[in-house]
Specification:
- It is built from five helices and nine strands, in the order ββαβββααβαββαβ.
- It is of the alpha+beta class and 222 residues long.
- The protein has two domains: 89 residues, Ubiquitin-like (UB roll) (Roll); 79 residues, Alpha-Beta Plaits.
- The protein has a five-stranded mixed beta sheet, with helices on both faces. Strands 6-9 form a two-stranded antiparallel sheet.
- A hairpin with a 6-residue loop joins strand 3 and strand 4.
- Helix 2 crosses helix 3.
- The protein is globular.
- The structure holds FE2/S2 (inorganic) cluster.
- FE2/S2 (inorganic) cluster (FES) binds next to loops.
Length: 222
């Protein structure tokens, strides 16, 4: 274990472990969506976990930055916050933000991130562009609403790497990017074993159980 300072607090963490987990384990929240502790190679795609590290000119992503003894980290520096806020605002601009009708409201990480970064879910700063993709209710266990997906990739990772199935993946690029099955088949038509693990790692309400459980009951990193 080595000592480091995060937001003025002296903490201990394993040398080499990613800064994001060191902070969360010590009760310091850093916004994140795409990170999974068990994923050996962080995708670093959501760009929400920026922090400032003393001695570095630019903010770094906490999910990729290894802990070193003596490092001094600021999670609320202006440069880091600016980057994180922009990433969050872009996500919110393409999200329906229909919280009143969403099962994940209250446990949704997008809500939590917006509150933490002090940005509004109904922001007018960026033009709202949402999609109207078909909702897939074919699975007896869960529903998938791609319109609420934040493309974090957690579900793709657990299906492929944890379970070795790989039923879902990313398709298309840019604004058209979507998590879907091979050939865009309904979930019920692919090899899905109805384990529901993809639902439990979804940080928002894109995947939810049909029995009324909201998504994301196990990911509480603060
Ligand atoms: Fe670091 Fe997504 S959690 S980029």
């Amino acid at each position: 274990m080595v000592s480091l300072t995060i937001d003025g607090k002296k903490v201990k963490a394993k040398e080499g472990e990613k800064l994001l987990w060191a902070a969360l384990d010590n009760g310091i929240y850093i916004p994140n969506l795409c990170a999974l502790r068990e994923a050996w190679l962080p995708s670093a795609s959501c760009r929400l976990c920026f922090v400032e590290v003393e001695g570095k000119d630019s903010p770094v992503t906490a999910c990729t930055e290894p802990v070193k003894g003596g490092m001094v980290v600021n999670t609320t520096g202006p440069k880091a916050l600016r980057l994180a806020r922009t990433a969050a605002e872009l996500l919110i601009a393409s999200h329906p933000v229909d919280c009143a009708h969403c099962l994940s409201s209250g446990s949704c990480e997008l809500q939590k991130i917006a509150a933490h970064l002090k940005i509004k879910l109904k922001t007018k700063r960026l033009r709202k562009i949402t999609r109207e993709l078909p909702i897939d209710s074919s699975s007896p266990l869960f529903t998938y609403d791609p319109n609420k997906c934040v493309l974090c990739g957690r579900c793709v990772w657990v299906c492929r790497e944890r379970l070795g199935i790989g039923d879902i993946g990313f398709a298309h690029r840019g604004f058209q990017r979507v998590v879907t099955t091979f050939a865009d088949e309904p979930m019920a038509k692919v090899r899905c074993r109805e384990c529901g693990e993809c639902v439990t790692v979804c940080p928002v309400g894109a995947l939810y159980f049909k029995d009324g459980r909201g998504s994301n009951p196990i990911i509480k990193e603060d």
